[in-house]
């Protein structure tokens, strides 16, 4: 039986190649500074995932699941972006050709959505926009927050190959809701059909939805998944490669400029 829980665990555990070698003392200090200044803008989206699965037209039981994912606050009113596949893996699995060939269909619904802030405050939230092509979901508080929320800046930096990056993600309940921070680098810049970046990060900080910054602390993008039919484009190695190749996906950093462009639609709803 195909279980959404298994898929969620696999996707949440994905990581990219480590690049610890060559990091300077200055870069490591810059990463600490980025996490200290901007860590509160990296929060958690929580919810309950309801799944409906069928194989060859026959329904299969799928219990509700509590789901959590690291996310990025884009403005003081609480508009937040999260990797869609990190919080709703059924969206990804539903597009997998192998599932279609096996006559397996998956439908998911995310309910009871909340934003858990860095200070442990939980705000009821609603989904305002999904973009499955870019692997993004935008949510905002149901009611205006009592105070402006900490958010990332509005600068959208551009990168070249080998430029350093800083990944910040919000850990989950098991690890005390803290932040994880790591230095990485840009491995490749892809411009067509739209710009995205292949990146290298230590394995412990490669979770989907991680917020990516440059060493100046400017918000650079979010780690998402992108369809890939060419295994040569897979930036992963070893145990990671087989899993994502089977899903036909590759992890990439979607630039902040693209995220903000899509976010304009979310602010109008």
Notes on the structure:
With 269 residues, the chain is an alpha+beta fold. It has one domain: Thrombin, subunit H (Beta Barrel), CATH 2.40.10. Helix content is 22%, strand content 38%. It has seven helices and 13 strands. It has a six-stranded antiparallel β-barrel. Strands 10-9-8-11-12-13 form a six-stranded antiparallel β-sheet. The longest helix has 14 residues. The N terminus is likely disordered.
Tell me briefly what this model is.
The chain is an alpha+beta fold and 269 residues long. Helix content is 22%, strand content 38%. Strands 1-3-4-7-6-5 form a 6-stranded antiparallel β-barrel.
Main attributes of the structure:
269 residues; alpha+beta; Thrombin, subunit H; six-stranded antiparallel beta barrel; six-stranded antiparallel sheet; 7 helices; 38% strand; globular; disordered N terminus
How large is the radius of gyration?
18 Å
What's the level 1 CATH class? Mainly Beta
Which regions are unreliable across 5 or more consecutive residues at pLDDT < 50?
A: 1-21, 230-242
CATH topology descriptor = Thrombin, subunit H
Count structural domains.
Answer: 1
Order of helices and strands: HHEEEEHHHEEEEEEEEHEH
Helix/strand structural class: alpha+beta
By DSSP, the count of extended strands is: 13
What composes the largest sheet? 6 strands, antiparallel, barrel
Biggest sheet strand line-up? 1-3-4-7-6-5
CATH architectural category: Beta Barrel
Average pLDDT level: 81
Counted by DSSP, the helix tally is 7
What is the overall silhouette? Answer: globular
| Percent of residues in β-strands | 35-45%
C-alpha end-to-end distance: 38 Å
């Amino acid at each position: 039986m195909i279980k959404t829980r298994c898929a969620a665990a696999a996707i949440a555990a994905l990581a990219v190649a480590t690049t610890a070698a060559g990091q300077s003392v200055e870069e490591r200090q810059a990463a600490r500074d980025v996490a200290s200044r901007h860590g509160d803008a990296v929060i958690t989206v929580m919810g309950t995932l309801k799944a409906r699965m069928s194989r060859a037209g026959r329904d299969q039981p799928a219990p509700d699941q509590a789901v959590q994912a690291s996310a990025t606050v884009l403005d003081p009113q609480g508009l937040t972006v999260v990797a869609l596949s990190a919080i709703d893996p059924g969206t990804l699995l539903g597009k997998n050709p192998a599932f279609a060939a096996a006559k397996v269909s998956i439908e998911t619904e995310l309910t009871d959505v909340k934003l858990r802030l860095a200070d442990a405050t939980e705000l009821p939230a609603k989904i305002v926009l999904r973009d499955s092509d870019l692997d993004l979901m935008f949510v905002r508080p149901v009611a205006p927050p009592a105070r402006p929320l900490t958010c990332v800046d509005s600068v959208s930096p551009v990168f070249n190959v080998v430029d350093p990056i800083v990944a910040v993600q919000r850990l989950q309940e098991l690890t005390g809701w803290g932040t994880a921070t790591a230095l990485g680098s840009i491995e490749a810049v892809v411009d067509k059909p739209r710009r995205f970046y292949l990146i290298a990060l230590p394995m412990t900080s490669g979770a989907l939805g991680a917020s990516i910054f440059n060493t100046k602390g400017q918000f650079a993008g979010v780690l998402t998944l992108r369809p890939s039919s060419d295994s040569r484009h897979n930036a992963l190695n070893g145990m990671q490669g087989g899993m994502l190749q089977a899903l036909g996906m590759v992890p990439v950093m979607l630039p902040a400029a693209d995220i903000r462009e899509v976010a304009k639609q979310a602010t109008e709803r």
